[in-house]
Amino acid sequence: MSTVAGPSQSACPSCGAALEFAPGAGALSCPYCGARLGIAAPVGDVRHEWAAYAQHRPVPVAELPPFDVRCERCGAQQTTTAIAGRCGSCQAALVVVDDLDGRLKAPDAVVPFVVDRAQAGTAFAAWTSSRWFAPSALKKVTPESMQGTYLPHWGFDDRTVTDYTGERGDYYYTTETYTTQENGRTVTRTRQVRHTRWSHASGRVARDFVDVLAAGVRTPDAGTLAELGPWSTAAADGYAPQFLAGFDAPRYEVDPTDGLADAQRQMAEVIADDCRADIGGDEQRLDQVRTVDQDVRFRLLLMPLWLATYVASGRTYDVFVNANTGEVIGERPYSAVKIAAAVVAALAVVAAALLLYRYR
User: Fold this and answer.
1) Would you list the DSSP string of 198-235?
2) Cβ-proximal residues to 73 (8 Å cutoff; 6+ apart), any chain
3) Where do runs of H (alpha helix) occur along 206-330?
4) How far, in Å, are 110, 167, 316, 323 from residue 146 at the CA level?
C-alpha cells in the first residue's frame, strides 16, 4: 500500500522550469536559464535524545510503504521509496516532504558538496588514468554524466564512562649463557632474554563521542563506504528539502537501533584503546570492560557522493567520488583486448632483443 506524498518543487521565476540546488551557492538554480532563488537558512545542529526516541518504539523502515509522487511540472505519477530523485517523464527534480505521519525519520542535517561536479570529474580522470588495461568505456565517462547523491548516515553522540579490569605486562630481561659452534670450536656466549611480568590492573576512563557515523544504507556495501570515508560532519548544515533538488537521496534502509549498535561497536574499539593506555606498561590484557552511556543523542545526516556508472561487456559498474574529500573508489574490469595487445608488444620486444643479441 502506498501513500500520496507531497513533492517539494520550486518553479523558476523566469522560465517556469523546476529549480535545482546549486552546491556552494546556497540557492536554487534553473538548469535552463540560470536564474537563482534563495533558500531560507534552516535550523542548524538538531540532535535528538535517544532514550526519548526509542521510547516511542519507531516502526521498522522495512514495514513502511513507498510514496506515490505526482510531479507538479508534468503531472506524471510514480511510486518510489527515495526521498529525492527525478520525474521519470520530464526529469524535473523531485523531493518528497512526507514523513509518513512521523513514522519515517526526517533528515536533520546535510553535509554540503565540497567537491563540485568539475572537481569530481578531475578526480575520476586521475583515477582512470592510473588503471592500466581499463576498458575504453571507463574513460568515456564525463563529469556531466556523474550523478550527485546523498547517502543517509546515522550520527551518534555519547558521553561514556568505562570501568575495566585487566593485567599490565612489564618487560624485564635476564642474561642467559649458551654454547655454540664457531669455526669448529665450542664457544660460550651470553644473550639478553625478554620476559613479561604481569600484575593486576583496574581503573576508569571517560570519553565523549561526537557524530560516530553508521551507514543508513546497504548499497554501497559497508566495505566500500569504509574505503570512501572518512566524511567530516563539521560543515553540516541544517536540513531543508531544497538542498536535495536535482540530487538522488535514497530512504534510509538501516533502522536507527541497528545504526546505534554499529556505532557502539566503533566506540568500543576506541574505549578499549583508552583502557590499554590507562593500564600502561609494555603489554596489556583486558578481562572486563563495563561501559555506561550517559547521554546518547543522534541525528540523521545526508552525506554527499558523486556516482559514475558505465557499462562494459554487458555489465554495469559503479565508481564513487566522496564529495566531501575527493576520494575515489570503484570497480573496473580488465580489457582483454588491451591485455592481449600488451602481451604481443612485450613478446615483440623480447624477440627483437634476441635477434639483436644473435647478430651483433
Assistant:
1) EEEEEEEEEEEEEEEEEES-SSS-HHHHHHH-PPP-TT
2) 9, 11, 17, 18, 87, 90, 92
3) 222-228, 256-279
4) 20, 54, 14, 12
- What residue type is assigned to position 60 of the chain? P
DSSP lists the bridge partners of residue 284 as 168
DSSP β-ladder status, 77-80 and 328-330: unpaired
In the prediction, which pLDDT does 288 show? 97
More confident call, 143 vs 239: 239
Residue at 164: amino acid letter: Y
Bigger pLDDT: 9 or 119?
119
Please, which pLDDT band fits residue 3 given cuts at 50, 70 and 90? very low
Per the structure block, which three cell numbers stand in for 259? 545504526
What are the two backbone dihedrals, phi and then psi, of residue 255, each rounded to the nearest 5 degrees?
Answer: -65, 150
User: For residue 234, how many C-alpha atoms fall within 13 Å in the half-sphere facing its CB?
Assistant: 5
- pLDDT per residue as tens digits for the range 255-281: 999 999 999 999 999 999 999 999 999
Of 128, 156, 87, 47, nearest to 321 by C-alpha is 128
Give the pLDDT confidence of 166-203 residue by residue, as tens digits: 999 999 999 999 999 988 899 999 999 999 999 999 99
CB neighbours of residue 301 within 10 Å:
23
Evaluated on CA atoms 282, 287, 293, 297, the torsion sign reads: positive
Q: Is the pLDDT of residue 133 over 90?
A: no
Across the beta sheet with 20-22, the strand order is 20-22, 27-29, 36-38
Instruction: Round to whole Å and give the CA distance between 163 and 54.
Output: 26
Q: Answer yes or no: are the C-beta atoms of 254 and 263 closer than 8 Å.
A: no
Region 330-344 average pLDDT: 47
